[in-house]
Amino acid sequence: MSGNREHFGGRAAVIMAMAGSAIGLGNIWRFPYMTGEYGGAAFILIYIACSLVLSLPIFLSEAVIGRRTHANAIGAMKQLAPRSGWMALGYLSVITPIVIASYYCIVGGWSIEYFFKSFTLDFGEFSPSGWKALAFDTLFLALSCGIVALGVKGGIEKFSKMSIPVLFLLIVIILVYSVNMPGARAGIDYLVKPDLSKVTGKTFAFALGQSFYSLSLGMGIIITYSSYVRKEENLVVSGVGTALSDLLFAILAGFAIMPAVFSAGIKPSAGPGLIFETLPVIFAGMGANAPWVSSVVSALFFLTVTVAAMTSSVSVIEVGVAYLVEEKNIARKKACLIVFLVTWLLGLVSVFSIKLFGMVDAFTSNFLLTLGAIMVVLFVGWKMKRDDVRDEITNGGTKHAGLFPVIYFLIRYVAPIAVLVIFISNLIL
Ligand code: PHE
Q1: C-beta separation of 80 from 389 below 8 A
Q2: CA 343: distance to chain centroid?
Q3: Can you tell me which atom of ligand 1 is nearest the CA of 24?
Q4: Distance, CA 308 to ligand 1 centroid (Å)?
Q5: Which residue, by CA, sits nearest to atom 6 of ligand 1?
Q6: Cα-trace Rg, the chain
Q7: Which of 203, 251, 383, 422 is most buried by a 10 A CB count?
Q8: Going residue by residue through the chain (429 aa), what tens digit of pLDDT does each one get?
Q9: Ligand 1 pocket by C-beta < 6 Å: which residues?
Q10: What pTM value is reported for the model?
Q11: Cβ proximity of 239 and 157 under 8 Å
Q12: Is the CATH number 3.40.630.30 carried by domain 2-428?
């Protein structure tokens, strides 16, 4: 099977695809708000520290599993720990993404809807559930599956390579507009003023949880994407490159959104409310003398959200598709159709009730992802042979060999404890 497996084209392709998965709604609707609420510049520093010390080792653990085996998440565990309890990690890694895709695509659908609404600026009331939401959800999911059907290189890699530069360009255009709005200063202050009084134990838990979600960890995505990474690529560089792009985009999104929010005198919020309720009001109100300006800025913004969400949704869908293709010998296009149908059916749970939508979101991001991440670090840190892990992370001892003991220590001791703390605090908070 591994003989005719596809591979990403090179270092840039690997980072673009992984950054595509990482950059998404988490950067746009959660990061800016969390930064403002939990200490501004102080939060950003804590976030960077959490990403380096904890998320990166988890990322590398998943990358080790994927690249070592060159197989889908379940196939990988079959190779590394056949018929053991660890197979649960493989199954979890394929189930979680499908659950996530089922509601993530609904948000993608809202973004497409709002892109079209931008032209008339007639946003009306935000109606997240119902038949219209289902229609746009179906469209978004179908487009995502269509890209995955084109293959790892011809679909995912090509789409990510095209989209990531465009996303950065778009968010910078919106940022320039936003920071020049009257009263924008307050929004900038909200993001950068270090406020240590807002830093508590909770800040660390939130920073870590966010960095986790943002890097798409704990759900088999990095296992699957890394299985398409050639042996000569450097996993540490891929991880750092992905984390930096993700962080940069989150910060740019903050400066694109918050100055506009404050300029309009609106209180910032997080989640769907921020981009589908607050921002449309601002867009609609800002171009009083030239409505086309509002339309253009709004359309560019929702285009950004749609594309950012789609580079993430393809990564979630690929996990299940890779499994069906390799373990069940199903042709890629047919596998995409199956994943489309399963995800679509599951989405029916969330698309008619915003309450269920919220529950599925909380259950996956607070529970399934953390569970997946704990199992990954325990597996790589305690079950796999140290030499095998070292071999993958250092390319046979040729790259970052001096750094390996530090990385390994983080994987073995620090990451499991930290993630366990998050896991428990998610259950009780
Ligand atoms: N990393 C994505 C984001 O920041 C989140 C994501 C979750 C991506 C689940 C894929 C799957 O939006």
Answers
A1: no
A2: 18
A3: 12
A4: 9
A5: 216
A6: 21
A7: 422
A8: 445 689 999 999 999 999 999 999 999 988 988 888 888 889 999 999 999 999 999 999 999 999 999 999 999 999 999 999 999 999 999 999 999 999 999 999 999 999 999 999 888 888 889 999 999 999 999 999 999 999 999 999 999 999 999 999 999 999 998 999 889 999 999 998 888 888 888 888 888 888 989 999 999 999 999 999 999 999 999 999 999 999 999 999 999 999 999 988 888 877 788 888 888 888 887 766 678 888 998 999 999 999 999 999 999 999 999 999 999 999 999 999 999 999 999 999 999 999 999 899 888 888 899 999 999 999 999 999 999 999 999 999 999 999 999 999 999 999 999 999 888 887 776
A9: 21-22, 24-27, 100, 104, 213-214, 216, 312, 315-316
A10: 0.94
A11: no
A12: no
Ligand 1 center to 401 CA (angstroms): 31
Domain ranges of the chain: 2-428
100 alpha carbon to ligand 1 midpoint, in Å? 9
Probe residue for ligand 1, chosen from 104, 315, 368 as the CB with the greatest number of ligand atoms within 8 Å: 104
Reading the block at residue 315, the tokens are 């990564």
Pocket test for ligand 1, best of 96, 213, 314 (most atoms within 8 A of CB): 213
Ligand 1: centre distance to CA 287 (Å): 32
